[in-house]
Amino acid sequence: xxxLTCIATMFLVAATMMAQNVKKSxxxxxxxxxxxxxxxxxxxxxxxxxxxxxxxELTVDQVSRIASxxxxxxxxxxxxxxxxxxxxxxVRSCTSLSFPYADQSVVKLQTARELVLIDFQKKTVxxxxxxxEGASELTWNPVSxxxxxxxxxxxxxxxxxxQRIQVTMDGNDDVVYGHSVSRDEFGISSGLFWSPDGQxxxxxxxxxxRIPSYPQVDITQRISQTTFDKYPMAGEESEDVCxxxxxxxxxxxxxxxxxKPQTDYMTNLSWAPDSRKLYVFELNRDQDFxxxxxxxxxxxxxxxxxxxxxxxxxxxxxxxxLSFLPWDATKAVMQTRRDNWNHLYLIDLAKNSYPEWHQxxxxxxxxxxxxxxxxxxxxxxxxxxxxxxxxxKSVVFVGNVTHPLRATIxxxxxxxxxxxxxxxxxxxxxxxxxxxxxxxLIDTYSSPTVPRSVCLTTxxxxxxxxxxxxxxxxxxxxxxxxxxxxxxxxxxxxxLYYRLIKPVNFDSTKKYPTVVYxxxxxxxxxxxxxxxxxxxxxxxxxAQLGYVIxxxxxxxxQYRGLRFEQSTFRHLGEEEMKDQLCxxxxxxSLPYVDxxxxxxxxxxxxxxxxxNLMCTYPEVFKVGVAGGPVIDWxxxxxxxxxxxxxxxxxxxxxxxxxxxxxKAKNLQGRLQIIFGYNDPTCVPQHTLSFIRAxxxxxxxxxxxxxxxxxxNMFGTDQIHLHERITRYFEDYLKTxx
Amino acid sequence: xxxLTCIATMFLVAATMMAQNVKKSxxxxxxxxxxxxxxxxxxxxxxxxxxxxxxxELTVDQVSRIASxxxxxxxxxxxxxxxxxxxxxxVRSCTSLSFPYADQSVVKLQTARELVLIDFQKKTVxxxxxxxEGASELTWNPVSxxxxxxxxxxxxxxxxxxQRIQVTMDGNDDVVYGHSVSRDEFGISSGLFWSPDGQxxxxxxxxxxRIPSYPQVDITQRISQTTFDKYPMAGEESEDVCxxxxxxxxxxxxxxxxxKPQTDYMTNLSWAPDSRKLYVFELNRDQDFxxxxxxxxxxxxxxxxxxxxxxxxxxxxxxxxLSFLPWDATKAVMQTRRDNWNHLYLIDLAKNSYPEWHQxxxxxxxxxxxxxxxxxxxxxxxxxxxxxxxxxKSVVFVGNVTHPLRATIxxxxxxxxxxxxxxxxxxxxxxxxxxxxxxxLIDTYSSPTVPRSVCLTTxxxxxxxxxxxxxxxxxxxxxxxxxxxxxxxxxxxxxLYYRLIKPVNFDSTKKYPTVVYxxxxxxxxxxxxxxxxxxxxxxxxxAQLGYVIxxxxxxxxQYRGLRFEQSTFRHLGEEEMKDQLCxxxxxxSLPYVDxxxxxxxxxxxxxxxxxNLMCTYPEVFKVGVAGGPVIDWxxxxxxxxxxxxxxxxxxxxxxxxxxxxxKAKNLQGRLQIIFGYNDPTCVPQHTLSFIRAxxxxxxxxxxxxxxxxxxNMFGTDQIHLHERITRYFEDYLKTxx
Lengths: 737, 737
Description:
mainly beta, Rossmann fold, nine-stranded mixed sheet, six-stranded antiparallel sheet, 11 helices, 35% strand, globular
């Protein structure tokens, strides 16, 4: 029904970045975030925040009010002012200050040792809360000023008057309270959740005693020592999760009374505005059946029936909490891809609906027990829900409404009457923060031709004032031409978008070695209509060295809807590779691409893709560099892995076909695999098993590892890594016959 | 005093191996012992053994007596004969049979399940002894027919009538009985020692509870698992060793009453012929003070005074047991390098000597409490003590008497009167087995021009009959020219010997890339006057690919005396590298060596040398491949490491200077380090620490690992490894500028 509105042709017009004459060249330090000179060469940035509906600009030295004309001459206070009030120099920069109360002239400061509230008009310290030594997972509630945190595996609460209460007692390496669960999948990133009034604390309990431990070797000790990461591999024993609620007034905890297996997932905990009810998205281990349930926060009792239910023959993936309407506690906004696209829906909890199962556009079924209504119709994805405009009774969001590669800002009425309204420029990729009542927003964006621009937009009028237009930080550099366009996927119908970078000092009569950079997995994309089409710095470096760089978001990647993503279900890698081969066919059509000198590089899922491409199409790719690859999905974790592959016993054929171990024998070109020696995500067993398989098969991959590093390299290690990757292509691809 | 008789000049004449015309080329499978075709291309071999003084030839099918004319027509028995006697097919090959009794027609067969004695004349089974399931360290005494063995960490004895007695009860992972101790240093290779009469069993107890465990990761499990190797690193806690004696008749054990610290070494346990006394070489942890003590085997009481003592400011290294004269239980032969060269000495235990400390030629001091007399004077080393000639009252040994690179067979009188007598051809490297009374020996040797030759020599007459002269197995192959010669060491005076291999189809007008293969450490040498100067198969492969190969035994290496070896004491690597650089200077003098394309390769100590050379002389070596290297001696084991380096706290400067970690920053050329992922000898911490140091310093080594392999690679992994090593030189050295 909903078709992708393809306006890709405009991207075929190359968006050349600064093609001037006598220019500097980049070093890797200039181009990578770990580099010493990287930040000097980034577009100018502006720190801003909201004090209620008042926009503020934050600098190191001061906080200023942004006027309606965009000027920020009115200084609210300086760092020196705050330090004078405090009587000591605690504020070193104003850029991380926040303003928790719309109606009070109070600024919040967090230091390593305490939280401080300062009234910057009355010039007094309003409140101080010390931070316990060794505390992690700090979560503060501005209404009650209660603070929750963890010491090791136990939860503590510190009340606003400084009383410290140990909430859980028996936490240890196996039983962990108050931390994120489910390996941060399903949108989970924390384990402590204050009720709106700050009097009740919901917290996760994770029992991981049955999960085997993966050994990680620390070579920096006098004699190498092993630490053990609890790592649930696909199909194996996983964690048990439940949710407790601690009541600060009674100092008692209770457990949500959920009769489902504790191996089910409990995600996106959402407090009702009255702090008496907690909503939980519940998902079975198979990840094909989701129910949203409410729990009484005072008794732990589960509601008799769910709010809504979703099933899908592939998978359901709840990723977002409920957002209750600020003016109506009976209604909330949720996100789901039930209709293929990720959209906002209004849930009317007070309005029961006869529970019937319906077929959904996304290929699954749903059953709503209350009234649920789509707010954001259209063939696009909501990328970010920004909040509500209280006055106009609307939702505000970022979505790829105007083009799959763009992210623009829109407003949709909650009433269901009236049209969506666009609140940003048509092009580019926007992010925004909304003021307290949603009257205004600060919109930061870039596009292929705009390095960075910030504006203040008033929603009612739709008018914007510019706050910042960054100049091109690369004006003095010899920058390669970066363009984008679309090709058809291997299914013959789906549009896929690419980024193409031509070598610096491009000569159309030459043939260049060409490197495909690939990720290819779900929940990520590599091409969008932001600055330089979202280039990665290393690509610029390679273009300087005379390479064509090509990046294609294949089916399975992000922001293209559920069907697009789920085309890879139970056979990860196969459709993705077919699409990448369409990319190769496109490259071969370009007269300046040397099809005999094709390389490929990717990390993580992209390492899986790179290794897979090298072993599946040895006649296509001469040289590959794979980082931190998945080699066999049975070595990957339960939560992510079983979503896309099911459990090994459910999908033995898929696991066998998608394993790279049997493909080790096919390796012909030069493949270097690089991994963090202490990678807790794609554990070293992946790479080492592949190396063993190659040895047994008599093929010769190359290998490198970063002792002490995890799944990615940062800082100087990142520079070293990219020198290494570059050298490999220089050694073997540039001179390949 | 004793000077090296240098006759090296003759080796300067190239010993070209088979320079014919239309020839085959080798594969790595032809040249490496792990290769599928390796054994087809080895010189013919002959299995032989002794039945008392009767020489026997063993083949798969039969055992024949070797006549005095060298023929072996007289078949003693066939495998079929034995199987007929046994009534089942237990004998599949006769090559591993032995003849434990000089005066009985009894052959000993060992199967997986039992020991069997068969009278091959009477055609009867004389005795059978079953082997307990899971038994290791099997040690059988032919006199009593008692059998000792270990089950796990405990010692058991099985008497000749089949009774099984558990000798130790509390063995476990920490406390280990009956196994080798001191990590097989000091000549130790077993932990069970029968007295000559087979009624008393001496055994080691090793308490390793204080030794930290090195984690080794097994990636073949469903989820990687760790096993822990007890690994005592230099300067750290080590093992406690003591010696027990079990008396079979009383079924009781006692401990040798040694008041010294149990961290001292107790080595080379030697039973007196009367089975009532056990001699032990005792060495302090500092390894600079050795005492030979006798213990009463019935009481465990230590003798009041030692037999002899040796001290050395560097180290003393007892490596050999006592050998008592078969006809005089008061006298024994020992080996020591006290006078610089490893020589045989006669100890007269019955003849006390006033204990005075004397300065020794080897740089140390000694104090003999009984009469001790040198038996083998001369500037050479005894390489192997073969035994006694009972009739002539002499010792028979292999030594580099005629040239440092040779190993010839000699006889020396025990009386001290008369001269040594040479029992073998002058050239080549000989090994031999002596008959029961020493009347005859079977001498197997090769030389640069003789692939393999076996002869039977009668000691009295000195006459030999040829048993086998192997033809050249490589007659059909294009074999490179292999030569040897000597250069001066960096000290300006010491002769060092090298092997030089020229490329196949050598053209003297060309300049060739050249690879130095190096080991360089103590207790090993690489050049000797055996077939092809003891080439390694890979060198032939490289010569085929157009490389010059050069191998030099630097100071510190084997069979050149104590001072030669100890020149490296407390600063391992430094003198060795200086000598290797003398080798490079020599190479530069050769018109066909391309000094701009020098590579280096070595394993273990040679991996240390390779990495060290690459980082110390980056302007000399372009490409290196280092295998299983030591990187920092503090990560190496106590026994070997502290001998040469002392403990880190005693020699902090030496450890710092000899560590390669600070040199990581100097790396310029291409260096690939390869290690067994489960190496228990040079633990992976060495290589990984170096890789980390390189990353931190911004240098770029290459890396590979063999998961599941230890310190060396065997079978197909060995082939894979050498393909890999070769490819690296092909990639980077051949085309280097």
